[in-house]
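Structure request: N-acetyltransferase, Nocardioides baculatus.
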Amino acid sequence: MSSDPFVPEDFEPPTRLEAEQFVLEPLGPEHNDSDLAAWSSSIEHIRSTPGYPDGSWPPVGGMSSEANLGDLTRHAADFVARKGFTFTVLEPGSGEVIGCVYLYPTKADGHDVEVQSWVRADRAELDVPLADAVAAWLASDWPWERPERHGR
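Returned structure:
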């Protein structure tokens, strides 16, 4: 990773992506209950999703609501500090969390952003459409040119 800022100082990060099957908005503490329910119901599915190669997340034993809230608070702070951008994936209409997208600096040579995403096991059919929509969004609205999409 370089010492350059993750995004240019004059760049205004997008805060919403709308598609027919999902909506992305910045992940924050207000999503805690729905986020915890989403990923804890789909641990095996998420661990098998491209982009989670080390198998350390999500934790097999889950985590408390307080620990999850701490993670969401950290992601929200990273967004504000422009150190990383995490989006919750919501079901249109209900606002229920069905996944997550992470945009963070990468250590991979030849790339300028690491892109990870997951959806709940009961929404597995959205995995590829979500990854494809995020790829198109990165190309059109974000400053990076070489995303690490983990083979997607």
